[in-house]
C-alpha cells in the first residue's frame, strides 16, 4: 500500500493506512477568512445603503462579532491548530440571525435587507462547514497536544 490519500474532498483527506481524517488547514484558513470578510461586509452595508438606526446597530454588532470569530479561527489555523468548533458554531448562529433579521427588523431599504440576508447565508453556511470539518478532523501532525 502507498501512503497517498485515496478519498479527498474540499477540506479533509482520509489516509489509507491510518484511517484518520486530517484537515487541510490551508483550505480552512480560506473559509475562516471569507467568514471574517463577510462580517466586515455586514458592518459596511448599513453605511452603503439606506438604513434605519436599528439596522445600523444590528449589522454593526453582528458583523463585528462575526469578523472577530472568523479572525480568531483564522489565527488558530495559521498556527497549525484546529479551528474552534464552538467559535465556528457561534458564527453560524450569528449568520442565521443575520439571514433572518431583515424579517424581524426594519432595514430601511430592500438593498440592505438583501445584502444582510446574503451575508448571513454565506456566514452560516461556511461557519457550519468549518464547525463540522474541524469536529470530524484529527489534530494536524505539527500540533502539540496540551496535557
UniProtKB/TrEMBL annotation:
The keyword Endoplasmic reticulum does not apply. Signal peptide: none annotated. Pfam families: SPW. Residues 30-127 form the SPW repeat-containing integral membrane domain. Keywords: Membrane, Transmembrane, Transmembrane helix. Residues 1-20 are annotated as: Disordered. The chain crosses the membrane at residues 30-49, 55-75, 82-100, 112-132. InterPro entries: SPW. The keyword DNA damage does not apply. This is SPW repeat-containing integral membrane domain-containing protein. It comes from Natronobacterium lacisalsi AJ5.
Amino acid at each position: 500500500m502507498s501512503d497517498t490519500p485515496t478519498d479527498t474532498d474540499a477540506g479533509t483527506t482520509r489516509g489509507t493506512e491510518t484511517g484518520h481524517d486530517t484537515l487541510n488547514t490551508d483550505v480552512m484558513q480560506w473559509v475562516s477568512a471569507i467568514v471574517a470578510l463577510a462580517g466586515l461586509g455586514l458592518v459596511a452595508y448599513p453605511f452603503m445603503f439606506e438604513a434605519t438606526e436599528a439596522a445600523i446597530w444590528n449589522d454593526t454588532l453582528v458583523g463585528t462579532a462575526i469578523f472577530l470569530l472568523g479572525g480568531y479561527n483564522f489565527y488558530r489555523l495559521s498556527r497549525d491548530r484546529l479551528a474552534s468548533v464552538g467559535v465556528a458554531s457561534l458564527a453560524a448562529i450569528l449568520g442565521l440571525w443575520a439571514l433572518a433579521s431583515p424579517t424581524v427588523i426594519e432595514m430601511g431599504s430592500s438593498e440592505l435587507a438583501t445584502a444582510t440576508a446574503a451575508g448571513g447565508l454565506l456566514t452560516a453556511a461556511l461557519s457550519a462547514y468549518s464547525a463540522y470539518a474541524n469536529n470530524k478532523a484529527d489534530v494536524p501532525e505539527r500540533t502539540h497536544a496540551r496535557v
